[in-house]
Each structure stands twice: as structure tokens, then as C-alpha cells.
TrEMBL record:
Database matches in InterPro entries: Nuclease_put_TT1808, Restrct_endonuc-II-like, Uma2
Name the UniProt record assigns to this protein: Putative restriction endonuclease domain-containing protein
Family matches, as PANTHER family: SLL0198 PROTEIN-RELATED, SLL1222 PROTEIN
Organism name: Flavipsychrobacter stenotrophus
SUPFAM superfamilies per record: Restriction endonuclease-like
Residue ranges occupied by any Putative restriction endonuclease domain in the UniProt entry: 16-171
Pfam family, one: Uma2
Amino acid sequence: MHLADLDLNQSYTYADYYSWDFPQRVELIYGKAFIKDPVTYTVHQRMSMNLAMPIYAYLKGSKSAIYTAPFDVRLPHGPSRADIDIIHVVQPDLCVICDPNNLDERGGIGVPDIIVEILIPLNNVVELNDKFDLYEEAGVKEYWIVSPQDNTFLVNTLVNGKYVTGRPLVSGILTSSILPEFLLDLSKLFADNI
């Protein structure tokens, strides 16, 4: 199958997804295929690295790990982890997985503890709406949204099955309930953006 043959109105599963060999990245959200922007933006890459490196250093030596895109995360919709039953496959910019049982040779299989998405103009609707709902429903404990355009950092924390969204951070020190004692100076994170 070629990317041009992909019917964006049809529902797919991870079994379908795994059989595809497209040059462009694709995600499945509620079984619907979303084609990722093929362009690699410099500011996006820089922001990803500025976040990944301190988290990696913090997690080094623990059972937890950080993964960067492209890295498939399969979010089971129910108790089954069978390929045919999985209708959510995302490639977050970054994700932290604390439970090694949520990994296999093909990537993440289960709910990451933290997912980070970095906004670019073409993905804002998917990241702020579709993925917000999906990650909340799946039980992702923290969903971080970073906007290099605005130099803002938004932390959504799962409380009783719903996200509580903090105020947009533009400076100060970021902390996380998932990563005790982890501190991220947002002025350093956004310094390359100025």
C-alpha cells in the first residue's frame, strides 16, 4: 500500500499500521489515520533535545527511560494488547515510561507516564484537541505541551481521570510529580528560541 492509497475516512488497527511501509510518519487516533508533517523544523528539534537531555540525565540508572520520536506508542483501548484490537498508535515528541512492562521490541505498549508534544503550526489542532482527549482517556499522568512560537510550557496533570491544566509557564522552574526532584529551568529551555 502507498500513502496515497490510505483512506483517511476508514478505521484502522495496529495490525494494519504495522503492515504499512510509508516514508512519512502516520499516527492512529481512535482508528483514524493522521499523516504527520514531513518537515523537520529546526526549532522543534532544538526544543526536543533541550528537553530530552536533562530528563535523560535525571533518569539514567533508573528503570524509567525517555524515548524520542519516531517511537511508536500503542495505547490499548481496553484490556487486549492484540495488534488487531489496538486503535491508537502515536509518536509523541518525547515520552517517559517508568514501567518496563509497557515496552516491547516494537516500542511502547501501554500508557507512558509523561508525554511531551511540541507544537508546530500544522499540528496544533491534533495536539491540543485529539491527543489531549486521547491521553486523558488513556490515563497518561502528565501531558506536557510546549509552544516554541510563544515560549510557553503547559502541564496537564491527571487527577481523578481528568486533566487539570496549570497556567502556561513562560519562566521559572518546572517540576513534575512523576519525576521527584527533577527541576527544569524554563529560561534555559527557551534560551535558544530568542
